[in-house]
Design brief:
Layout lengths: L6 E4 L4 H12 L4 E5 L12 E5 L5 H6 L6 E4 L17 H18 L3 E5 L11 H15 L4 E7 L2 E2 L5 H11 L16 E2 H13 L5 E5 L2
Parallel strand pairs: 1-2, 1-4, 2-3, 4-5, 5-6, 6-9, 7-8
Helix pairs in contact: 1-6, 3-4
Length: 216
């Protein structure tokens, strides 16, 4: 039996990417990850191929995706951080890096991309986080892949989450907790495992140009 072509997942040793890799491996898929943190604990052992996110070496980045047909891209940065030792840790650099990733994927022969964006990116225009996400939605659509899909999560929660778990800790330990506005806005958070399952479904059952709001 011919083994399936590997699926490339950016960040399979991190929060949501780890769940994605786990589900893919459970389904008998080969998984290859591109990561900025190759020394993080690897729960998958030899089942996971690990390569660096070599944005500064496009030729190596292309080679790391050769033989793959699908890329699941979770790469992004949470905050703008400038200063020594953290070069490239800005939304603008993340946009440039992701464009490099798309170009390398095309050169490697990847045909389908599942790209993680953000819920309602136009609603945050003027903020570099949202502007960058919107720019990359256009970039993946114009990159020339045979098919692509965009998944837009809002708030994710689950073991290992930062935002919701930190809020929960503050509510337990701090006598006063501030909220923005009148507090009557609503959130529809999605568990990270459900988000991972959605990404896997979009990778294995592609529909060209589909955009999905990932909310509960």
């Amino acid at each position: 039996m011919t083994s399936p072509a590997p699926i490339v997942v950016t960040g399979a040793l991190s929060y949501s990417g780890r769940r994605v890799a786990h589900l893919l491996l459970d389904r008998g898929q080969r998984v290859r990850t591109l990561t900025n943190s190759p020394h993080r604990p690897n729960p998958f052992g030899d089942a996971l191929e690990i390569h660096p996110l070599a944005f500064d070496n496009p030729a190596a980045l292309t080679r790391s995706m050769e033989g793959a047909a699908t890329l699941i891209n979770t790469y992004w940065v949470r905050f703008n951080r400038r200063g020594r030792g953290r070069a490239g840790f800005t939304h603008a650099q993340a946009v440039a890096n992701t464009r490099t990733l798309f170009k390398a994927a095309r050169a490697a022969g990847v045909s389908h991309v599942v790209h993680v964006s953000i819920l309602n990116p136009r609603g945050g225009r003027g903020l570099t986080y949202y502007d960058g996400k919107l720019e990359l939605e256009d970039a993946v659509a114009r990159a020339g892949f045979e098919s692509y899909e965009i998944v837009r999560p809002g708030v994710l929660f689950g073991r290992g989450d930062i935002l919701v778990n930190n809020i929960a800790w503050a509510l337990r330990h701090v006598p006063v907790f501030g909220v923005f506005g009148d507090g009557r806005y609503a959130l529809r958070p999605l568990h990270v495992d459900d988000f991972a399952a959605l990404l896997v479904d979009r990778a294995l059952n592609p529909i060209h140009g589909r955009t999905t709001d990932a909310i509960a």
